[in-house]
Amino acid sequence: MRKSFLLSALIVVLSGCAYLGAAHYNELFGPEQTQQRMVEHNSGSGAEFLQHVQPVLESRCVVCHGCYDAPCQLKLSSPEGIDRGLSKERVYNGTRLLASTPSRLLFDATNTSQWRDKDFTPVLNERAQTEQANLAGSVLYNSLVLKMSSPLPNDEILGDEFDFSLDRSQSCATIGEFDSLANSQPHSGMPYGLPGISRTEFKHLEKWLKEGGKMAHIKPPSKAALAQAQRWESFLNQDDLKYQLTARYVFEHWYLAHIYFVQDDEKSFFKLVRSSTPPGQDIELINTRRPYDDPKVERVYYRLMHDRSTILAKTHLPLALNDSKLARLYSQFIAPDYHVDSMPSYLPEIASNPFKVFAAMPVKSKYQFMLDEAELIIMGFIKGPVCRGQIALNVINDHFWVAFADPAKAATPEVGEMLLQHEDALALPAAEESNALPISSWVKYAKRQNTYLKAKATLANSMFKNGENLTTDLLWRGDEVNDNAALTIFRHFDSATVVKGFIGQEPKTMWVLDYALFERIHYLLVAGFDVYGNVGHQLITRLYMDFLRLEGEQNFLALLPKPQRKELKANWYRKAPPSLTNFFESGDEFSQPTGIDYKTQDQQHELYGLIKQTLKPVLSPRFDYTQVPEPLQQLNNMPAKAINLLPQISFILVKDGAAEHQAYTMIHHNAHYNISSLLNEEGQRAYAEDTVTIVPGFIGDYPETIWYLNNPQQLASFAEQLPLMQIEADYRALKSKFAIRRTHPQFWQYSDILHKVAKQYRGVEYGLFDYNRLENR
After folding, report:
1. Domains and CATH numbers, the chain
2. What does UniProt give as the signal peptide span (predicted)?
């Protein structure tokens, strides 16, 4: 059977049809012309695609080709992405001097011909639709055949010919260029740097490609889900200006979410989009760089569009809606007594500043709306386009907790008046649009931030001058039921994760967010960030985030005695440049003493305990690291020398009985002397202070190592040997014993197990993991 399988796969290669130049393809099969490939989901070829082809593409291909950071922009997570094909232009480019043209599926082109005009090239055959041409002219098919003709070497660690860096050079070969690629890089077959797919999987793809690559969308949502979507669209699209402003605010905060309805058993996901057409008509997407850019239509309608693409963990932001949520929005934005006389302008300097656009709305309503789904809002700047890349994320520490100021105390009319008076000082870098000059912009925004901080401190000093000082009563307690009140953020070098609860050991720092700070983080890193922007836009976004991080830390420090505030901050910013240290100190305007009566000399530890006690009713136990059983529990206390050898994210599967698995995540926290340096992260690393946290379940979406422990003996041996590591050779030896390397012959079988277990743990939060960061060690 294997010989037959290889023979059928290699016929095209041996016939000379797989590696021909574009001119020869034209001679043999005619010129390229886009094809109509979409069929109904309940047709014969549609059912074939959904039942036999799509599962292979998802489990073997989408795990590397799913989003903005997919190699060659090849998104295999939807029929539109498959048909669009490849691009040689990078989305993530931290050096471009001018903003590039966006290339978002469904938005920036409406059909495959338009993508061809934007220099995307096909991976499916677009010449004569014969069986021979459909195989010979398909980049996808030739990539699979190339892997079989040049399988992975037997070495556990692949050689230098394999480049797994995220910024590696990419060939993105057209079918006419494929012969040159195959000759110069025979190891570049797909899946890249992983074992080939099985013969059964290959046969499914071969049959599909041979028959013309027909594709179908998943079946439509249930009637119950569509009825709920219509109800929400009715609410969001009323003519009253109060409703229109509410819909604009909701959209600008929820547009990344995967919305589903609690009453829908099938859990269809929807995206909230702007359309030029009202409910009841087909959606006509409004295409702008940012969610608040000028729509250039007389009336914007907010619609719920069925999301038919594969769900990826790295972009999945589930949001549950029901009747209670609808009533909550009404009570927050429609019931309060305020008036909207006209809709705000879409001019960039206005639209990018939420304090101007939504000034008519009560501050408390806006803040409570964000708090209700705080994890989702913060997840936006982690799972949105900004999430990829060191420059975007080296502005935060590797592990910190987040709490929020109580709306009753921090969203008062006095606070609202102060924000109105200083709305210009709260302007964000997105006002410069997608081309910015970073240095001059930094100076301008630094002055504005200082102006705002002084006004904020003046108001705070006046509020707490009569003996009423800050205590943990300042913190929002989630109304005693909402577990969004306590969050933990993990940075994994060039990706990040946010989860509910105060997870892990006590962190180096903590943030306390108030409304203005929370809103600015969202409009800086989500609504206002353009992944296609120039280097200046990306740098000023990162530099401005310094201001916001410092402000969140300062809110936390205000709960400590005044001497400890300065001492702790100095420790957080060891070795920081004097110029930045001076700027950091300029924000220390709050002069009131803490209202907490500390009992020990370790005030930070004591404060963490007080905050945890205050929020105890709503602390999520899901990732409680103290619940990890021995012997894995002891790994939380590993020595730094062993921790230094670990990747950022390691998944551990422990086989428990015949078929059950227990899952754990081991997170490596990189310690820094400070995180104020933009381009010298390595110089700021404090390796001796690195820590690790092991938690039950899955944290993170980009596994770098998969450990598989088959029995109690392996578990005990792994837990004993891991802390003893001293050098790279020790780590590699342990991987040979206990890990599923990317070169493991049964890698895909273990990948399937991993995803099956993840689905059990994550439920509605489940999505495919991304394998672009799997290490080669």
Report:
1. 2-210 (no CATH), 222-343 (no CATH), 345-556 (no CATH), 625-765 (3.30.1050)
2. 1-22
